[in-house]
Amino acid sequence: MSLSTQDVSALADTLxxxxxPKVVFTQEAGQIAGKVGKVVRLEExxxxxxxxxxxxxxxxxxxxxxxxxPQRGELSPKPKKQVxxxxxxxxxxxPPLLEEKSGTTSTTKTKKASTVTDTADTAxxxxxxxxxxxxxxxxxxxxxxxxxxxxxxxxxxKAGEWTVAATKGAKVIAKPVPVxxxxxxxxxxxxxxxxxxAVVEDIVEQQRKQVAEEAARLxxxxxxxxxxxxxxx
Length: 233
Hints:
There is one protein chain. By secondary structure, the protein is α+β, with helices and mostly antiparallel strands. 36% of the residues lie in helices and 21% in strands. The strands form two sheets. Strands 4-3-2-1-5 form a five-stranded antiparallel β-sheet. It has a three-stranded antiparallel β-sheet with strand order 6-7-8. A hairpin with an 8-residue loop joins strand 2 and strand 3. The longest helix is centred in the C-terminal third of the chain and has 39 residues. The radius of gyration is 43 Å and the shape is rod-shaped.
């Protein structure tokens, strides 16, 4: 079980109110699986280790698969059973004990003493676990550096004009700006890509032919107009 898209949205809403919601570490988190931590923030974008959790005195990043939202009632404290300790001087309930003979009483006391001695020896051989047997503290997980946003520079040709635009990730940092055909040729010639340079040079050459043909047509029209003007003088 891990965080779903709805769980991430719910955590973000809780953080927005100023509260730090609790999460439980899954088996993907390693030796701290089953422990509880508090979410302090969600990194953007919500990929890789974007869930920052406070565990002890550390703030560590985790993936959505390494933590989960606790189930209802999972973190509620369980009531402890109260066991009344019997007083050693209080006799157990039931009919009064019959007086035993002196020999039987002596044997019973000897067995009780032997039992107490055996219990003490067992406790000495098997001491209760102390601080030295505690589980090792979890190692701090190194934070991953965020990759730099991609920068894209685009040279485009449309409707007889060359333009250059630039974007950084999803953000537009430079809208399409007109450039001269000669500048477009210089840009692609600086690249180590003869195929791209050939395409741009071919487009510029076609533009040059179209403009030359248009200039020749206008010169012919101008010559004809001047001839008619001369006839009218």
